[in-house]
Specification:
427 residues; alpha/beta; Aspartate Aminotransferase, domain 2; Aspartate Aminotransferase, domain 1; three-stranded antiparallel β-sheet; 14 strands; globular
Length: 427
């Protein structure tokens, strides 16, 4: 089957590399007598993920979107509650909030990290604020110390969307363990994949882990009490009745929401464990590519590159820089890159301006930093371990040529002599 991509250097259709190790894991699952659903391979993947992140609980589901839906349901939002979110993310992060009668408040972003700006966040907090939904944009961890301090003093819950952040660290800790609950995606384009789709929730709360288990397992998320059955005495449980024991054991006091089948298949989970073991190599490849792109971009006046502060390790799910000259210059640069075979995708359109959130009353000017950067300065370039050395060479040289074409000159024309060399062997 031919690839759908016509670009010499594509944006990530696969954010990791699948190889013989993944095939071996699949073969092992298929040749075993183990169940292909809710079996030992899923348990192994969750154990591996728990150890990697340091979370008390890690529970897999069928996608990052489902993880977010479940996590938002755990917040137990009531009419009139306020939830603070970021405009700089994929729409799935906050889309479940459309089903809740709450006030969503968009927090503007930091002009370098594109993460939620803590100063703006503080100005939005009220006595109705119930939760903060943040993203570690592109793999740069958000400023969690300040955000956690603001939230904890007010009893506000923090949901981390970690879809970009696998492989990042914040002062030695992993995203997904910095707030109250973390949501990860293993979509084909993410830093590891479970055969194209998959997700994970991480939390230290035992009560939430119990509710997640119900929600992902076609049960009801409710308040149950153990009591003697009404009417006829419960029959002796036979082996074939083992999945029905709760019917005779429990009574339901109230219902929060119905569950669903969000079971990650064991075949996908087996590949997930293999991919997780390769994550350090994938992350190093991304960082090496980003370093070369930074080297090029920083040679041109007015171009800003992302440089995380001490204690932060960037996962570079997305490579982002900011270019001068306004919307026309940025468009000229993107067109120059496109002509040279470089696929550009800008991530992400400010969410408060999409139709469904404008229908909820949001308007231009609400997040001026995010709006200015997306419409005039932001540039995202391909940066994933599936790029070969040749493609990376093509990418960095095309960036240099396109910046020169757009802006006329660099700071130091002689800088290229010892630059633009990808370290290590090819992938």
């Amino acid at each position: 089957m031919e690839s759908c991509c016509t670009y010499d250097v594509p944006f990530a259709r696969r954010g990791s590399v699948l190889d013989e190790d993944d095939l071996v894991a699949l073969t092992r699952v298929l040749r075993s007598d183990d169940p292909l659903s809710a079996g030992p391979w899923r348990s192994q993947f969750e154990d591996d993920f728990r150890r990697y992140t340091g979370a008390k609980h890690a529970m897999s589901v069928t996608s990052g979107t489902v993880a977010l839906e479940i996590a938002i349901s755990l917040l137990d939002l009531s009419p009139g509650d306020e939830v603070i979110v970021t405009p700089q993310t994929f729409h799935a992060t906050i889309q479940p909030l459309l089903d809740h009668d709450v006030r969503v408040r968009f927090c503007d972003v930091d002009p370098y990290s594109l993460n939620m700006d803590p100063d703006c966040l503080e100005s939005l907090l009220t006595d109705r604020t119930r939760a903060i939904l943040l993203v570690h944009y592109g793999g740069w961890p958000a400023e969690m110390d300040r955000i956690v301090e603001l939230a904890r003093s007010r009893g506000i819950l923090i949901l981390e969307d970690c879809a970009h952040a696998l492989g990042a660290t914040y002062n030695g800790r992993h995203p997904g363990t910095l707030g109250d609950i973390g949501c990860f995606s293993f979509h084909s384009s993410k830093n590891i994949t479970t055969l194209g789709e998959g997700g994970m929730l991480t939390t230290d709360r035992d009560d939430w882990a119990e509710r997640i288990e119900r929600l992902r397992s076609n049960q009801v998320d409710g308040v149950f009490t153990t009591a003697q059955p009404v009417g006829a005495a419960a029959p002796a449980l036979l082996p074939y009745m083992k999945y029905s024991d709760y019917i005779y054991r429990d009574q339901c006091a109230s219902i929060r929401r119905a569950g669903t089948n969000a079971t990650l298949s064991d075949a996908a989970a087996a590949v997930g464990s293999v991919q997780l073991g390769k994550l350090p190599a994938f992350a190093e490849r991304r960082r090496n590519t980003a370093a070369l792109l930074d080297q090029v971009a920083s040679q041109y006046p007015g171009v800003r590159v992302q440089r995380p502060t001490a204690g932060l390790v960037h996962a570079y799910h997305l490579y982002t820089c900011f270019v001068p000259g306004g919307a026309d210059a940025r468009a000229q640069l993107v067109q120059a890159l496109d002509r040279r075979g470089i696929e550009i995708q800008l991530r992400y359109f400010p969410l408060h301006l999409v139709p469904e959130w404008q229908a909820r009353g949001h308007r231009p000017g609400e997040c001026p930093v995010a709006e200015h950067l997306w419409f005039e300065e932001q540039l995202n370039l391909p940066c994933h371990p599936g790029l070969t050395d040749r493609q990376i060479d093509r990418l960095v040289n095309a960036l240099d040529e396109s910046l020169l074409e757009t802006y006329g000159s660099s700071n130091d024309p002689g800088w290229r002599d010892d630059a633009l060399r990808m370290p290590g062997a090819g992938v």
